[in-house]
Specification:
Elements: E1 6-10, E2 13-16, E3 25-28, E4 31-35, E5 38-43, E6 52-55, E7 59-63, E8 65-70, H1 75-83, E9 86-91, H2 98-107, E10 115-118, E11 122-124, E12 134-136, H3 143-153, E13 158-160, H4 166-178, E14 183-185, H5 192-197, E15 202-203, H6 217-221, H7 226-239, H8 242-255, E16 258-259, H9 263-269, H10 274-279, H11 288-301, H12 307-329, E17 333-334, H13 343-356, H14 361-375, E18 393-397, E19 410-415, E20 418-422, E21 425-426
Parallel strand pairs: 1-6, 2-7, 8-9, 9-10, 11-12, 13-14, 14-15, 15-16, 16-17
Antiparallel strand pairs: 1-4, 2-3, 4-5, 7-18, 18-19, 19-20, 20-21
Length: about 425
């Protein structure tokens, strides 16, 4: 048995899944025994008399949720994640060293927060759109040193962005894979088809997945700003031939590529999320400053947008949802990310967009748990409730197999076997008001 104190979560319905393909199902009367940071057993046996007991009567116990794409290094956001049942996050492009410091503070218990993974800064070829969060490489010759530097500093994965060429990407993936590190990306100069062939393991929301052979190379590479490129992206989702999109999705599924579509980020650009976000229970926890930051974050990404661009985004979301459904039917690996901030709020909107795409609640939950663990390359110890796995767990009021909004009613959150939310209240130095 693993060292450390014991915790028993008793009396709840435990959400079980089968990696062989059977749908997730709840098992009533199962108790989850935790020792140290690991799950020891899941069964009906009574817990040892010295175990700390968490009463989950009437609740559903399930693996913690995973957000694969966030950026903001703010303690308040970390607390909001665990309040919302998100026990792992991956930062997809930050200043070098920022995540390592935040991770140390969470691990030491100085601030409440989830398990933290990092891609480190973006890798891009000049001129990059995000210089403050990017390590530039000028071509294949520079790539190995940059890759090794990021892996040695803090990166659990690497993220490549807009202007990386196929030749440079091939060197990046080769160098990273030699060290057992996956590469994800939101490539643009390099199409997703080319990127997957070059060995890229994951596809993020703003990657050039749709293709249109009628477009000149100058149109693809001639964007003038972040907002200009995103406006072209949403137009491309509308105009690209469906057959070519399906070809790329089939290639991704065949190669085992993870896809984090982050549809909610598209909706945020178009201003479609303001009303739904304001209706979420956790919105009341935000300060006035945090609420103002939501449209401020959007403003940089959509600078120069017209109403036509916002209208195009509505149509692009429908196309993306169709693509998500197709990818799922092909057996593709879907993970959940937000790329809209604060992620702790937008995460639940993303789950709703996936459900609206036609995924069952069980499939959405699988993407939010097992899908994220797979993309992190941590399926051996995250993503399901099994003996030997890390005790990153949540207990919620309701049955998410019937109602995904139950995931917003978090009563308990444990990260590495440590309770950070108990009876709906944050432990270990709350930064937000307990309400």
């Amino acid at each position: 048995m693993h060292g450390g104190s014991m915790i028993a979560i008793v009396g709840g319905r435990v959400l079980m899944s089968n990696d062989g393909g059977a749908p997730a199902h709840s098992v009533g009367g199962a108790n989850v025994l935790i020792q140290g940071d690991r799950i020891v057993r899941v069964d009906a046996a009574q817990p040892p008399p010295d175990a700390q007991v968490i009463d989950a009567t009437g609740l559903t116990v399930l693996p913690g949720l995973i957000d694969m794409h966030t950026h903001f290094i703010r303690p308040l956001d970390m607390e909001l994640f665990v309040r919302q049942g998100i026990t792992s996050v991956r930062f997809a492009g930050t200043a070098l060293g920022a995540v390592a410091d935040l991770r140390r503070r969470v691990v030491r218990g100085e601030i409440p927060g989830p398990r933290i993974f990092s891609c480190g800064p973006h890798l891009d070829e000049p001129p990059t759109a995000w210089p403050e969060f990017t390590v530039e490489v000028t071509g294949p010759e520079d790539a190995p040193a940059a890759v090794i530097r990021l892996i040695e500093a803090e990166a659990d994965a690497l993220i490549v962005i807009q202007r990386i060429s196929p030749a440079t990407l091939a060197v990046i993936t080769g160098t990273a894979h030699e060290r057992g590190v996956p590469v994800t990306g939101q490539t643009w100069t390099t199409s997703v088809r080319e990127a997957v062939i070059a060995g890229m393991d994951g596809v993020e929301n703003t990657a050039r997945l749709p293709e249109d052979p009628a477009l000149a190379r100058e149109w693809i590479e001639g964007y003038r700003s972040i907002g200009h490129r995103l406006a072209r992206l949403v137009r491309l989702w509308q105009s690209a031939p469906q057959g070519m999109i399906d070809e790329v999705l089939a290639l991704m599924a065949a190669r085992g590529t993870d896809w984090t579509p982050a549809i909610c980020s598209f909706a945020d650009w178009a201003g479609l999320t303001d009303a739904p976000v304001a209706k979420l229970p956790a919105y009341a926890l935000l300060s006035a400053e945090a609420r103002v930051a939501i449209p401020a974050s959007r403003a940089r990404q959509t600078e120069g947008w017209s109403q036509a661009d916002r209208d195009n985004t509505r149509a692009a979301i429908e196309q993306m949802q169709h693509a998500v459904a197709t990818f799922h039917q092909l057996g593709g690996a879907i993970a959940v990310g937000t790329d809209a901030h604060p992620g702790g709020l937008f995460y639940h909107l993303e789950l709703a967009y996936l459900a609206a795409a036609g995924l069952s609640n069980a499939a959405v939950l699988a993407a939010a748990t097992k899908g994220g663990a797979r993309a992190l390359r941590r399926g051996s110890d995250l993503g399901t409730i099994e003996a030997g796995k890390l005790a990153d767990l949540i207990a919620i009021d309701g049955d998410p197999l019937r109602d995904l909004s139950a995931l917003q009613r978090v009563r308990h959150t444990l990260v590495a076997g440590r309770p950070v939310v108990v009876d709906g209240q944050v432990e270990h130095g709350s930064l937000l008001p307990n309400r």
